[in-house]
Each structure stands twice: as C-alpha cells, then as structure tokens.
Design a protein that fits this description.
Layout: E1 3-12, H1 20-33, E2 37-43, H2 45-50, H3 56-73, E3 80-84, H4 89-98, H5 104-109, H6 111-119, H7 121-124, H8 130-133, H9 135-145, E4 150-153, H10 158-175, E5 183-186, H11 215-223, H12 244-252, H13 255-266, H14 272-298, H15 301-329
Parallel strand pairs: 1-2, 2-3, 4-5
The structure holds tryptophan.
Length: 336
C-alpha cells in the first residue's frame, strides 16, 4: 500500500558510476521504498560541482552514467521521479533564502562538512569556498523543494539532515508553518568496506566493484582483495573475520554456503583461490541481470533522456509550487 503522507527524496552526486557499496547501502532500499512511498531521486550536479567546479566534463558525463545505474538496478521511472538538480532553478533560489537562516560557525561545525574539507586540502588549500561550505544549505533546498519528508541516507549524511531540520524550524518560526521537517531513514548496510579492507568503498579510493564492471574486471578485483595476512599456506588456519573475501561472501552468497566456506577456511581446508573463485561466480550471478538492463538502456539512450527530462519537468512543477508558497510566506509575492 502506498503511503501518501510521506514523500521520499534522495540524491547522489554524479561524480562516478555507482558501485556495490551504493547497491547494498542505498539502491536496494530505494527499489523497495518506491512501492511504499512517492519517491524522488535527485542527480545532484550542482552539489557535485562544489568540489568539482574545475572539472565540469566529469560531472556532465556522470549524470547519464548514474541514471543508467538507477535504471539497471530497478528504479522504476513509473514509480520514482528522477531529476537533474541544475534544471530546477527554484532550488538555487531557495538556497539563497535559507542562507540567511544558518550561520557560518554552524556550517563549519557540521561534522560531515568538516571531515570533507579536511580531505580536500589539495583542492581548497587553507580556505574553503563559500559554495562548498554552504552545500548543506543547498541540500536543505533540494529536500524542501519537493517537500521530501523521508530521506534514505547513509550515516555520513545524518549531520546534513539535522542541519536541514534546523533550517526548516527556523524558517517556520519566522515566516510561518510552511515547511515540514524531514526524517532520515538509515539503511542497514549503510557502509560497505572496500576491497582493500578500508572502512569505506569509494570511487576515489580505487577499492570498488562497480555495478557495470565486466566479468574480467570483477575477477581481477576479487583476486586482489585483501585476505587474512597471517595465512600463507593453504593449510594454515585462516581467520575469516579479517578477510574481505569472506566479508563479500556474506553479501553475495547463500548464508549456509558462507558458513561452510568460513568453517573450512578456519580449519585450513579451503584455499583462498577456491574461495575467491566461488565469490566471483556469485558476484557475476547477482550483477548479470543488472548489467543486462544497463545494456538495454545504453542501446536506447533516447529513452533514458526522455525519462530524465520528464522526471525533471515533473519535479520542477512541484518545486515551483513549493517556492510560490515559500515566497508568499516571506512576503515576496508582490503581484498576487
Ligand atoms: N550529499 C549526498 C551525497 O553526497 C547527495 C545529496 C544531494 C542528497 N542532495 C541530497 C542526499 C538530498 C539526500 C537528500 O551522497
């Protein structure tokens, strides 16, 4: 049953193709939620530019890549409205209005922004741009422009949702009750580890398996995944708890198979190569239907563009209505 009282809004920065971390961490959940709630997904190209302003080609190219990833995992355009951020000028307009409702000190204290600035020293040097520091304000505009009330995100996004809630409260207290405070929905596999054992799988870390990887790429990546460093010979006792191959078996293989694989590893009865080969087969099995759908859409890019354009038009209509209400509350409706 559709619950029409709440509306989903999520988004991704189009800076690369999506990987299995996105798949388990958010995409699977979005596919499920689109049957329960009216759903919007934003391709956040303006936000992507906040730390890629010097690389517009990268952002442009990845808008369609991310779109192909969405369609290939089963985001259904009849249920989910997918739109491009920069084509909704109302979002930029709301960002300006909201920027009065948040202080610079508050933005600087935002844990997500703080961590990201520290990671981007090379780009920003000692002084971060106004645009990057302010992207939480723009994200609040994304969410409220389509009246998103449920925001499925990973843990790293929680401070941004909190900041949005603060902006909403402040807006409502000054201009009247127009906006609704959104709530985050945390996905259970919010963070998937990388092939190298890093806590996060990420495109910039080079430790990801992409949804669009070929059989050969998957094979090569799994073969180089980090395993128990103390296990040198096949009959050494292994420790699956420190092995990335065991970790991915948990995601891709049947529970009973994973259990016996790990038992055999602990007893030194199953070698890493055999274990990796089985994982490769299971990953390929899971990704094959996804890659087949991707191929279909790649061969029908005019259809992909049509879906994207229609979604954007629909989202724009909603954003225009919301902005009208907001401007009225702010007494900016001179000729009504
Ligand atoms: N900041 C999000 C990320 O990096 C992307 C995003 C943009 C988003 N606008 C959003 C997420 C609105 C949720 C709601 O993943």
């Amino acid at each position: 049953m559709m619950n029409l009282n709440k509306r989903i809004l999520t988004g991704d920065r189009p800076t690369g193709r999506l990987h299995i971390g996105h798949y388990f961490g958010s995409l699977q959940n979005r596919v499920k939620l689109q049957d329960e709630y009216e759903s919007f997904i934003e391709i956040a190209d303006v936000q992507a530019l906040t730390d890629n302003f010097n690389n517009p080609e990268k952002v442009r190219k990845n808008v369609r890549q991310v779109m192909l990833d969405y369609l290939s995992v089963g985001i259904d355009p009849n249920k989910t409205t997918i739109f491009i951020q920069s084509m909704i000028p109302e979002i930029a307009e709301l960002t300006v209005f909201y920027s009065n409702l948040v202080t610079i000190a508050r933005l600087q204290r935002n844990p997500t922004v703080k961590t990201e600035i520290a990671q981007k020293k090379e780009l920003f040097g000692d002084s971060v741009t106004y645009g990057f520091l302010g992207y939480p304000v723009s994200q609040a505009a994304d969410i409220t422009s389509v009246k998103g009330t449920l925001i499925p995100v990973g843990e790293d996004q929680l401070p941004l949702i909190e900041q949005c809630r603060e902006i909403v409260r402040k807006f409502n207290s000054i201009y009247g009750e127009v906006l609704v405070e959104p709530e985050a929905i945390l996905s259970k596999n919010a963070r998937i580890k990388g092939l190298d054992g890093n806590e996060k799988m990420g495109k910039s870390l080079g430790n990801a398996i992409y949804l669009s990887d070929t059989d050969e790429e998957i094979q090569k990546k799994v073969m180089s995944a980090v395993t128990d460093p103390n296990r040198i010979k096949k009959d050494d006792y292994g420790n699956p708890n420190v092995c990335m191959v065991a970790y991915y078996h948990n995601l891709f293989s049947k529970a009973e198979d994973t259990k016996s694989i790990c038992e055999e590893c602990k007893l030194g009865k199953r070698g890493c190569v055999a274990c990796k080969k089985e994982l490769i087969q299971n990953i390929i099995k899971e990704l094959t239907p996804i890659r087949e759908r991707r191929k279909y859409y790649e061969e029908h890019m005019e259809l992909v563009d049509k879906i994207l354009l229609e979604g954007t038009k629909k989202a724009r209509k909603v954003a225009m209505e919301t902005t009208k209400e907001i401007k009225k509350a702010m007494k900016l409706n001179y000729f009504d």
